[in-house]
Amino acid sequence: MALANSVIVLDFETTGLSPNMGDRAIEIGAVKLVNGEVVDTFQQLMNPGFRVSGFIESYTGITNRMLATAPSCAEVMAEFNDFIGNDNLVAHNASFDKKFLDAEFERIEKSYNGEFACSLLVSRRLNQDAPSHKLGELVRFKQIDNDGVFHRALADSQMTAKLWLLMLEEMAEQGIHQPSFELMQKIGKTSKATVGKLLQQHSM
CA 155, 158, 165 angle in degrees (round to 5)? Predict the structure, then answer.
């Protein structure tokens, strides 16, 4: 059984919202968790082969000048493929990051065996009183330590990892110790009305 506390938490910064529209990754950040501890991190800018818009420069703080000297997407994604190995993956709004991971790996003919869980969907079920489930808002709501940097890939993946571990801690307080990765996926897909029942079934 794969445990939820041993995963790769990742985040992309990109040139836009859709790889189908020609958008590319410009930064990847990731945190490797083993038994709830951070054991490694990965961070790399990557040159998409074209200039990014002024909006993306100001939103992320990643400038065309920074990207000009960065390695290619192909080079970085090949390294990242080695980094994730066979681990399961977590991202905040995972459908977005999965789209870019799949598209960038497809370009270099790489694949991965792990599955995705979405910390945003899980938070919607477990933190139903939160005013918003945007990462920055949740970090404030949960009073998670942070250095105030958002929209940079490593900082966002570190925040997501802290949020993920906090949710696992709070589940442990409800008697759900060492939940499986599969259970976290299931929580994200369960309706708000019935998630309490699901958690009850798994509490000791």
Answer: 155
